[in-house]
Amino acid sequence: MQLASVKSALGEELAMVLKDGVVPVSRIRRRKQESGDPLTMDGLFSDSSAVLSSLRALHAWADAQTWAAERVATADLLAPVSHPGKILCVGLNYRTHIEESGMTLPSFPVLFSKFGNSVRGPGEPVAIPAVAQQVDYEAELVMVMGKVCANVAEADALDYVLGYTCGNDLSARDLQFRTGQWLLGKSLEGFAPMGPYLTLAEDMSPDNAGIQCWVNGELRQHDTTANLIFSCATLVSYISRYMTLVPGDVIFTGTPHGTMMGWPADRQAWLRPGDEVVVEIEGIGRLVTPLI
């Protein structure tokens, strides 16, 4: 099952991804003549086990109906998690990306962070700031936590993940490497697009999903999460030893080779206003990000 966050009269609402389109849960309940308070993704995080059981039954019924009048437009999609508590990111997690970057294979996951100002939804434009001259794309699988998680074993780690979405870890390389800390080049406004949907963990394996990235229709990245150095389970377990993960936290798991940083200097063409970046992950969908 796939879920989405959409704009509505409520401001933000949980929706289901059906064969006939994306439909807010409130509209499905209304047609089925079911009662219930309006749902948001944040509300789901507070009691996911109980809510998901009822949503699955509702989804099965709704997927057999037609929804032409009730479905929402693509422009009304928000980032699946529009208010994450933590945005944790993993650098250097594909061997080929390490090689193209000229860096050393890490002994431990390389962690850094972004902030809420960086979140953007599918199709939402991201402005390239005047202070950044070398803006790069990074297609990434993103984990969304669904349970409080501290000191968990690797074998149990994925039980704490609610689902997965697409992410683009936009990076201003000139700012990223200005100092020894990456934060500045990673946390600019809009530099964490996510979406379009959240695929629930029980419906997708994060260990062998194809991941691709196009810039203006040209394929730039093509790999599989099977090539992650530190798997999703390893990352959750490792991070949970040092900080408590809570529902709604998100983890960008790293990008494969093909970033502009890895191109020869005389061929590097950094992102510019008017460009469009598309990230696609098998089992999730396509995240489109226009640059302005």
Features:
single chain; 292 residues; alpha+beta; Fumarylacetoacetate hydrolase, domain 2; 11-stranded mixed beta sheet; 4-stranded antiparallel beta sheet; globular
Q: Span between N and C termini?
A: 33 Å
Shape label: globular
Please identify the top-level CATH class of the largest domain. Answer: Alpha Beta
Largest sheet: 11 strands, mixed
Order of helices and strands: EEEHHHEEHEEEEEEHHEEEHEEE
What is the number of domains? 2
Number of strands: 17
Mean pLDDT comes to: 95
CATH domain topology of the largest domain:
Fumarylacetoacetate hydrolase, domain 2
Radius of gyration over alpha carbons?
Answer: 19 Å
CATH homologous superfamily designation of the largest domain: Fumarylacetoacetase-like, C-terminal domain
β-sheet strand percentage? 25-35%
Helix content: 10-25%
Explained architecture:
- There is one protein chain.
- By secondary structure, the chain is an alpha+beta fold.
- The chain has two domains: 2-77, no CATH class; 81-290, Fumarylacetoacetate hydrolase, domain 2 (Alpha-Beta Complex).
- The chain has helices spanning 25-32, 41-46, 48-62, 95-101, 173-176, 183-186, 232-240, and strands spanning 2-6, 13-18, 21-24, 77-78, 87-91, 110-114, 119-120, 135-136, 139-145, 161-168, 171-172, 192-200, 210-215, 218-224, 250-252, 276-281, 285-290.
- Strands 1, 2, 3, 4, 5, 6, 7, 9, 10, 12 and 15 form an eleven-stranded mixed beta sheet that branches. A four-stranded antiparallel beta sheet has the order 14-13-16-17, with no helix packed on it. A two-stranded antiparallel ribbon has the order 8-11.
- A hairpin with a 3-residue loop joins strand 16 (276-281) and strand 17.
- It is globular and about 60 Å long.
- The protein starts with a strand and ends with a strand.
